[in-house]
Inverse folding.
């Protein structure tokens, strides 16, 4: 059972892992207004929360990694799995820098979008995306960021890039290999199927 | 088969590399413990995958990002929990700790002498709220785990080392800061009494950070 807000945000990669592996799960979506009442029952006071036979597991990346390991999306070797972790944590550092602008786009916060683009988003992008472009190129532009099979960091990055393309078109024009990798990821039939049928949300 | 060669590169301090050193020492695995001065770091930066340290090299293959390194070594040498679900809880607690650490880092950087700042104001306005958000949770976790000397499960994991190292740093510079969290302190004391870890702690070079 996966519990999260009614949006993609920090829960979507877990949902995708379930759909890709064909494992049924309860996709429990909490409306914003109801969230305060649930907060105290969460181990770390936050969502997403995964429950496996009733046993809770918090923290999005711990959830993604656990499901990925169970379903075969962690990479082809322990060292590859470690590289998946490393890219994900590097992405997390970047996301922490850019999220303030995204929250304005999602309607969760007020802000001057143009100013934040210049002061926050562009510097964050210029620090992270050259590395990601190189990673995709060094991985032979094979449709994955690490190794030769789909991993949870592919899903993590593809979901985020989709958000950027929606709210900030052209933002990643300097990173064609990243864009081509994301396109290939999103074309994976079972993932495409989920993306096409999933509930719409702003975030 | 021949054991791979391990090389760990970081600044001359504990901070974001110490857990890796401890895992390798606990597992009795020889490794090259490379320490880079602040002066030499800029010229090395562009040779690393993410422009950052620590960096682990396994038979010459690079792996960046501290938690990826800790998790990889912990898995190789038996410090990642006794089941996949337990490993996931180790990961979850480590990420929760990282969220707290990110908040308190500006205070530590001033205390360690890397940035300028009003130490007393930072402790009051930044470190104290960060602590009060996270440590009650950690106290509960230690109690719920039966006060058995571990934060998750009943064997030593890399999150035990992570938290123990941080608490040690806090005690070094802000004694009494964690006195409201006796179960955490007790758990950390048990962790650092692990014979081989105690040995490492006693013989390692002393550093401010």
């Amino acid at each position: 059972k996966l519990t999260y807000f009614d949006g993609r945000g920090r829960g979507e990669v877990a949902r995708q892992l379930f759909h890709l592996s064909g494992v049924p799960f309860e996709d429990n979506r909490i409306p914003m207004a109801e969230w305060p009442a649930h907060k105290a029952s969460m181990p770390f006071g936050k969502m997403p929360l995964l429950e496996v036979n009733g046993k809770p597991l918090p923290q999005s990346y711990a959830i993604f990694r656990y499901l990925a390991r169970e379903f075969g999306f962690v990479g082809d070797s322990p060292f590859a799995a470690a590289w998946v972790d490393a890219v994900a944590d590097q992405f997390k550092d970047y996301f922490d820098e850019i999220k303030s602008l995204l929250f304005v786009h999602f309607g969760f916060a007020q802000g001057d979008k143009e100013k934040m683009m210049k002061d926050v988003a562009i510097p964050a992008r210029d620090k992270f995306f050259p590395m990601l472009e190189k990673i995709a190129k060094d991985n032979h532009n094979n449709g994955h960021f690490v190794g030769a099979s789909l991993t949870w960091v592919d899903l993590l990055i593809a979901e985020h890039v989709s958000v950027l393309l929606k709210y900030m078109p052209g933002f990643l024009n300097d990173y064609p290999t990243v864009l081509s990798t994301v396109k290939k990821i999103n074309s994976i039939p079972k993932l495409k199927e989920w993306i096409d049928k999933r509930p719409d949300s702003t975030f | 088969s021949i054991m791979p060669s391990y090389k760990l590169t970081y600044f001359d301090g504990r901070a974001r590399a110490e857990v890796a050193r401890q895992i390798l020492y606990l597992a009795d695995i020889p490794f090259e413990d490379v320490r880079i001065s602040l002066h030499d770091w800029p010229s090395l930066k562009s040779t690393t995958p993410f422009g950052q340290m620590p960096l682990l090299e396994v038979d010459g293959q690079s792996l960046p990002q501290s938690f990826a390194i800790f998790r990889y070594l912990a898995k190789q040498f038996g410090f990642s929990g006794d089941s996949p679900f337990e490993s996931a809880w180790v990961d979850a607690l480590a990420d929760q700790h990282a969220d707290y650490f990110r908040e308190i880092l500006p205070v530590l950087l001033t205390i360690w002498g890397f940035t300028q700042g009003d130490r007393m104001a930072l402790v009051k306005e930044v470190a104290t709220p960060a602590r009060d958000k996270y440590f009650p949770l950690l106290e509960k976790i230690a109690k719920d785990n039966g006060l058995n000397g571990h934060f998750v499960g009943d064997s030593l994991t890399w999150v035990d080392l992570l938290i123990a190292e941080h608490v040690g740093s806090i005690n070094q510079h802000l004694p009494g800061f964690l006195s409201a969290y006796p179960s955490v302190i007790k758990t950390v004391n048990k962790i650092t009494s692990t014979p081989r870890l105690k040995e490492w702690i006693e013989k390692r070079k002393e550093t401010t950070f």
Summary: The radius of gyration of chain B is 17 Å. The interface with chain A takes residues 49-51, 58, 61, 63-65, 67-69, 71-72, 75-76, 84-85, 87-89, 91-92, 95-96, 102, 137 of chain B (CB under 8 Å). The CA atoms of residues 14 and 188 of chain B lie 17 Å apart.
